[in-house]
Amino acid sequence: MTNEEIIQQLQYLIGSRYVPTVKAYIGELTARERVVSSKEFVTREFDINRITVDINGAGRIAAFSFG
């Protein structure tokens, strides 16, 4: 699944409240093993297969980024 396809697949989650279990859900839907939230400490290395769930100040999913 390409990054563009992932964004389309997950678009409905934007605006919903972030809960830690959403990472496992996204991993299952996309077959990507590395799913992290923007609130976690992660390495700065570029990982083409990593999905970052961007969380806004209200604790809601704002976007998804890759790498």
Describe this structure in words.
This protein is of the alpha+beta class and 67 residues long. 27% of the residues lie in helices and 21% in strands. The protein contains two helices and three strands, in the order H-H-E-E-E. The chain has helices at residues 3-10, 21-30, and strands at residues 35-37, 51-55, 61-66. The chain has a three-stranded mixed beta sheet with strand order 1-2-3, with helices on one face. The radius of gyration is 11 Å and the shape is globular. It starts with a helix and ends with a strand.
Order of helices and strands: HHEEE
Class of secondary structure makeup: alpha+beta
* Low-pLDDT residue spans: none
The strands making up the biggest β-sheet line up spatially as 1-2-3
The dominant shape is globular
- The average pLDDT is 90
The largest sheet, given as strand count, sense and whether it forms a barrel, is: 3 strands, mixed
- Assign a percent range to the helix content: 25-40%
User: How many beta-strand segments?
Assistant: 3
As a whole number of angstroms, the C-alpha radius of gyration is 11 Å
User: In angstroms, what separates the terminal alpha carbons?
Assistant: 15 Å
Query: How many helices does DSSP assign?
Result: 2
